[in-house]
Each structure stands twice: as structure tokens, then as C-alpha cells.
Write a structure and sequence with these properties.
- This protein has about 230 residues and is of the alpha/beta class.
- About 50% of the residues lie in helices and about 15% in strands.
- It has a domain of about 140 residues: Vaccinia Virus protein VP39 (Rossmann fold, 3-Layer(aba) Sandwich).
- It has a five-stranded parallel beta sheet with strand order 3-2-1-4-5.
- α2 runs antiparallel to α10 and α4 crosses α7.
């Protein structure tokens, strides 16, 4: 393992070798996510999905290999024909569209204009009459007024960009009566590796990665231990 000797990485390393039970993992997540968003211009990145053309390309990528990734994800869900599903950060319907064939109803939370437009076209094309879309960010959701819970299955598939991850998970628990599935990155992604090298040259600042699933795991377990 190569350790880059910067003050920030040393700070993270110190946190890692501390007793994990004494670490405020929610704070670790928040600090790492905010550093990432500040260096990467979150508004500019989010704007990509406001464009319908980009959302359409994302959907077309999800269709590769006969929707292999979606099928593999769905295969491990504890669903029945009677399940009510909440899909957070649903995008163009990557999971929601194939799930709709197997469950009673899917509520999809998606804020981006382009994604919503493609999603609505997909709902029409695949004749899904059991999908509803809540056009908001999860952070802005009022769980009592915007949602019709509880849900048997809640999914957040690579859509956990919220700085306040503890509140996000607590809100999921508030409308859950079954399983919550959180999918996130286990290590540095290819774009993390490339960005580390070129970001300082392009922007004159250090690139900060998002918190990974080790932090997410510890946040989740700390929440369980306090309930």
C-alpha cells in the first residue's frame, strides 16, 4: 500500500487506526463528501443529468449485455409479486423498469430533469402502469407527505452523494418495513485514479475522493447500535 504523505491523508490514516467505536463515522463521511464536492464542482457534475441526451446515453449503457447489471442486482433482492419498492436515485429507470415486471409497485425518487424525461419515456415504452416518480432529491424529501410508505424494499444504487448520510439512512428506515439495500463503491474507481493525477494540473488543487463503503458500513452499524 502506498501512502501519500499529505496532511489530509495522514489525518484519515490516524482515524483508521483509532478504535472504530470511538470514531464519529457520520462526521467522517460528511467531511470526505464535502471535500470531494468542493473540489469537483458538484453543481457542474449534477448538471450533466439535466440534459436528456446524456440521460439517454446512460440508459442505453444500462441495456448492454441484456441489462446484466440490473438483472444481477435484482436477482439478490428479497422481492415478491406483492412487494412495494422505493428506488432512490432511480435515474432513467435502470432498476425500476425491470423491477416493475416483478413487484406490485415501484416509487422512484429522481431529481434530474433529463433523467426524468427519459424515465417517463421508458415507462410509456415498457407499458409500466405501476411506477410513480417523486421528482426531488432524497435530501429534500418529506417522508410523511411525499411518500406512501412503508416499503418492503428500499434501494439506493450508487446514489449516496448526500453529505448527511445518517439522516438519509434514518429517513429510509422511517418508511421501511423490510429490507434496505445500499450499493456504493468499495475502493478507488478508475476516475478517482485518473483524477488524482490530472486534477492538480487542470485545477491547481488536490483531488479528494468520495467516502467509500467502509465508511458507509461503519455509519450503518453505528446507527443500528444506537437504536
Amino acid at each position: 500500500m502506498i501512502i501519500h504523505k499529505t496532511s489530509q491523508k495522514l489525518k484519515i490514516l490516524q482515524e483508521m487506526i483509532m478504535d472504530p467505536h470511538t470514531i464519529d463515522w457520520s462526521k467522517v463521511w460528511t467531511e470526505q463528501m464535502k471535500r470531494h464536492q468542493q473540489c469537483s464542482n458538484r453543481k457542474e457534475c449534477a448538471a450533466i443529468w439535466e440534459e436528456k441526451e446524456n440521460a439517454r446515453k446512460f440508459w442505453e449503457m444500462s441495456l448492454r449485455d441484456n441489462q446484466r447489471r440490473a438483472r444481477e442486482t435484482i436477482r439478490f433482492l428479497h422481492i415478491t409479486p406483492h412487494s412495494r419498492v422505493l428506488d432512490i436515485g432511480a435515474g432513467p429507470g435502470t432498476l425500476a423498469i425491470p423491477l416493475a415486471e416483478k413487484v406490485k409497485h415501484v416509487t422512484a425518487v429522481e431529481p434530474s430533469k433529463g433523467m426524468i424525461e427519459v424515465f417517463e419515456e421508458n415507462i410509456a415504452e415498457y407499458a409500466c402502469d405501476n411506477i410513480s416518480i417523486v421528482k426531488k432529491r432524497w435530501e429534500d424529501i418529506d417522508v410523511e407527505n411525499d411518500l406512501d410508505g412503508p416499503y418492503d424494499i428500499i434501494i439506493a444504487s450508487f446514489s449516496l452523494g448526500m453529505p448527511n448520510i445518517s439522516k438519509a439512512i434514518k429517513d429510509m428506515h422511517a418508511v421501511s418495513c423490510g429490507y434496505i439495500y445500499l450499493y456504493w463503491f468499495a475502493g478507488e474507481t478508475s476516475w478517482d485514479i485518473h483524477s488524482r493525477k490530472i486534477w492538480p494540473q487542470l485545477h491547481g488543487t488536490e483531488y479528494h475522493i468520495t467516502p467509500k463503503c467502509d465508511v458507509l458500513y461503519n455509519v450503518s452499524t453505528s446507527l443500528i447500535s444506537t437504536t
